[in-house]
Design goal:
By secondary structure, this protein is mainly α. The protein contains ten helices and no strands. It has helices spanning 2-24, 28-48, 52-66, 76-79, 87-107, 111-134, 139-148, 150-173, 178-191, 206-217.
Length: 218
């Protein structure tokens, strides 16, 4: 029984990793190109002033960048190393990995539970932020825990997924023609802020904007 659970867990992990890799495969080659370009400047500096510490630091940053581990290391030396904007890809890879099992759970929840899940996560995030503030953490530590940390950003992502499920259910149950929702979705895209590296899950927030626009119209 334990072996079956272990095999099932490994299969689920492999499936999640495959889904994540499939989603980021278009951006990952660009990341490698920019990383290689930045690496040339780093190597140029090392050649000018060679040091064992510099070589080790460069090697560590290279490994971290290749495997998209920037946001998993609580050290500012790695957050924006080499290809600086790739930190969001590090977060995004994790969010895509948890998306299939997360969606499977949320699909089973009714509207009330979706609202509760979103509200609870939001309250937990606010409470965590308050605790970090009262604990007197440094600005860098607070920035990492509430902005870069993939686990914290998973809360934002889950709330967005809840809103997306609510929007989809409303769309299925509504008597409005499908074209009305298409206009809402188009308006949401047009109103969306330009893509920024500082907003890795901006696309996931579109359903939230759609719901707000629909309420204004209705």
């Amino acid at each position: 029984m334990t072996d079956k659970k272990l095999i099932s867990s490994l299969q689920g992990l492999r499936s999640a990793m495959a889904f994540s890799l499939q989603k980021i495969r278009k951006l990952y080659p660009l990341h490698l190109i920019m990383m290689a370009a930045a690496l040339l400047f780093v190597l140029k500096g090392l050649l000018a002033q060679p040091s064992a510490r510099g070589v080790l630091s460069c090697a560590a940053q290279l490994v971290v960048s290749i495997f998209l581990l920037q946001t998993w290391i609580p050290s500012s030396r790695f957050w924006f190393c080499l290809n600086g904007v790739a930190w969001y890809l590090s977060v995004q890879a994790f969010l895509y990995a948890i998306f299939p099992p997360l969606l499977a759970v949320l699909k089973k929840a009714d509207a009330r539970r979706l609202h509760c899940i979103a509200a609870v996560i939001f309250c937990v995030q606010c409470l965590a932020s308050f605790v970090f503030w009262k604990a007197g953490l440094s600005g860098k530590a607070a920035f990492y825990l509430t902005y870069l940390c993939p686990v914290f950003r998973a809360g934002d992502f889950t709330i967005s997924c809840c809103m997306g499920c609510l929007y989809h259910s409303r769309k299925q149950e509504s008597d409005l023609p499908g074209g009305a929702f298409s206009l809402l979705e188009l308006a949401a895209v047009l109103l969306e802020e330009p893509p920024q590296a500082a907003r890795p899950i901006a696309r996931a927030e579109i359903p939230v904007i759609c719901m707000k626009l629909r309420r204004l119209i209705l």
